[in-house]
């Protein structure tokens, strides 16, 4: 049985990327960031799963930036004066 919940993640309260977190039958927690395909992790505790998925999401974002990819979700995070 999965127990689902959404959690406002690392980029801010109202404009942050959503973390979806569920508890599996075996007791493990699984967390993912749906806006970033492939960003999904398991943790022994809810907090561990959240921490691990935030870290992975930041790594994926950094990698995408390094490769010149646009990340629309970050437009509200950074501003460049005109």
Beta percentage is: 15-25%
Counted by DSSP, the helix tally is 1
The name of the CATH architecture is 2-Layer Sandwich
- Could you list the spans in which at least 5 consecutive residues all have pLDDT below 50? 8-13
- Structural class call reads alpha+beta
Going across the major beta sheet, what is the strand order? 1-2-3-4
What would CATH call the class?
Alpha Beta
Let me know the average pLDDT. Answer: 82
Radius of gyration computed on alpha carbons: 14 Å
- Can you tell me the CATH topology? Double Stranded RNA Binding Domain
Main sheet attributes: strand count, strand direction, barrel closure: 4 strands, antiparallel
The total domain count is 1
Helix content: 25-40%
Tell me the total number of β-strands: 4
Termini separation comes to 52 Å
What is the overall shape? elongated
- Pattern of helices and strands: EEEEH
